[in-house]
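Hey everyone, long-time lurker, first post.

I ran two proteins through the pipeline my lab uses and got sequence/structure pairs for each. Pasting them in order. The first:
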Amino acid sequence: MNAPRIEGGRGLPMRAGAVAAVALLLTAVGAAFDVRRALLAYHTAFTFWVGIAVAALILLGVFHATKARWPVVVRRVLEVIPTTSVLFVVLFVPIALGAGRLFPWLEPQRLDADLRHLAEHRAPYLNLPFFLVRAAVYFAAWVIVSHLLWRWSVRQDREKGVALTAWQRRLGTGVLPLLALTISFAAIDWQESLDLHHSSTIFGVYYFAGSFLSAVAVLILALYALRREELFRMLNADHWHSLGKLLLAFTAFWAYIAFSQYMLIWIANLPAEVPFFAHRTQGPWGAVAVVLAVFHFVVPFFLLLSRDLKRDPRRLAAVAAWQLALHYVDVYFTMMPASQAAPAPHWTDLTALVGIGAAAVAFAARRLRREAAVPVGDPYLEDSLRYQPQ
């Protein structure tokens, strides 16, 4: 078949790049007035977006591991999302340089006796050189795997055949344990260690669950944004229905892990663990927790039970956008200092979120425009186009 390409939005990479530059510059201006608050806003936005990129890579690996044929038509759009991981290497630099203002374990002498004891006890793991080495390992894994899967997929457009499909399936399957470990340890390093009282044995899974849910949401939104392209016309209602079912499944999975994490800490009632949730279940922080429970789980869960909604791209995209926004609230909820009596939003929260997100969009859009919008060399593309669940 002819290779359809993205024809519209020719100026998107440049416009998104300009928005990213302005927003990140404003974030830097914010740092001139309050370095720690601007860094925390930047770090929160970074963690939100990089988690989506890695979760998209895991979703791609799952599709290859299960030899799924139905998502082949949407795979090229999915493949480009994790390639932004190379951009996040650059975006991590301000966090590495400002680590001393973000992570309390870097200056234990400034902590009270209880927290100082925790910082000293964890020093063999929580120290700056090892922290940076681990980050380098995470990024190396994400960049190499995403690059290989993208390169082999694009190469298959020209060479055809099944050999490159086999390579992608072997790699996608084999790296899943590595990707699961790296995203889990990244969550511990970048989120959990911000608060030494935050000690959850399943926090890595919690971060993965929210990021995976958001990766599915981003894929749905990207496909809907391409609704004027030939690719959009290749999708049938069953493709949207299956994407909606993934969104529903991981909405439930996120809620299950969130409840399990809270329940385990509540039952154990250990002094080293309880303060994190004690602060976040009272007063204004408690209101945010209720908002997450109701609007990140209950409402979208019941909406997504509708078969008609899942088969309607417009309404499904609306729910996906809602879940993406609530995931940011969730990341914000877990990363902002619990010592504050209430959430204290700052304008750099918005500029950092928009700046990093726009940079990722510019990078992905530019790369996607250079290649076919679908993997035309994949031997199972025709099966995907005729997808109709039994």
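...and the second, right after it:
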Amino acid sequence: MFTGIVEETGRVASIRVGLESTELTVVVNKTRRGLRVGHSLAVNGACLTVVGTRGNRLRFDVLNETLERTNLKSVKTDSLVNVERPMRADGRLDGHFVLGHVDATGTIRRYEKAGTDYVLEVAAPPSVMRYIVEKCSVAVDGISLTVASVRRGWFRIWIIPHTHAVTALQERRKGDLVNLEADILGKYVDKLLLKHR
């Protein structure tokens, strides 16, 4: 489990496409400490398994299904990706419960500076929008963010300068895909209500 508090941005070093999976190598710094083969890491909010390490380079085998469901299919060499290690059992929950299971991708319909902050608007499919309410938490590329307002088919988030500067959002533009994971609590409530209708 993760919290949506990005520890650092990694940089994609190489991408090797195979028949059933793609080998993705990411250069990291502080998240490398203590990581071994078999450990999990959230990359743009998608929980991946480390299959190789060499210095500050981490290697992942990304299955084709994962590529299809996430924006990892559109990363390129030198792209920034958000990286977070799993939460320790005795750690603080500074964000919200993030499982690293991307629900769908959304499309940035607006991302621009507004005063000292940034406004981010994301168009999302109905499978995600059903769980989006004003002031709820949502993981966007693995970043725990708070929804400011909701419209039909899209939602708005305000981004502070710090979040823009320390995450891969600094590279995002209108039209880009972002990974979305709705709050697991909303999913459980939805299922319980459907069961009792």
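Reply from user beta_strand_b:
Welcome! Quick read of the second one: The chain has two domains: 8-84, 104-195. Residues 8-84 form a domain with the Elongation Factor Tu (Ef-tu); domain 3 fold (CATH 2.40.30.20).
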